[in-house]
Amino acid sequence: MPAFIQIDIAGTDLSVVLDDDDRVAYAYMTQRGKIVADVWLYNIADPPEQDPWQDRTQLPFLNPRRFCKQDAGYRITEDSQVSCTLVSEYAEIKVDGELVARLAPGTKPGWSKGAAIDGPLAKSLSE
Question: Are 100 and 92 in contact (CB under 8 A)?
């Protein structure tokens, strides 16, 4: 089931949007309405074997299999407890208390728990 959650980061002009469209999930950092960072979180659909970058009709892109962990271990729903905290220059995104992503203005891509290796949609998150 699709989910769209927006969190304003206290004391800043930054927000984080988590978007699960029932196919793929991403997090976006916005500043005054403009996307300043993004990261792939997980695929719901089967990951492709080949890079989908050439086919713009496939946006937002699924992350190819070689870049993904087998299972992200979570899925965002409207009932998820999502928090976003500024730690140094990074925004840490937690879902149900678990760190799942890290973003900072100008990072494209950011870091994701679901990334097995660094790729064009996400860097591997190490705590």
Answer: no
Query: CA 73 to CA 80: how far, in whole Å?
Result: 13
Mean pLDDT of 103-127: 95
Summarised one tens digit per residue, pLDDT across range 48-77 is 999 999 999 999 999 999 999 987 788 999
17 CB-near residues (< 8 Å, 6+ apart)? 4, 5, 6, 7, 27, 28, 30
Contact (CB, 8 A) for 15 and 34: no
Considering the chain, what is the average pLDDT of its residues? Answer: 94
pLDDT (0 to 100) of residue 70: 82
Cα(17)–Cα(4) distance, rounded to whole angstroms? 7
Q: Which residues pair with 123 in a beta bridge?
A: 111
Cα–Cα distance, 23 to 27 (Å, whole number)? 14
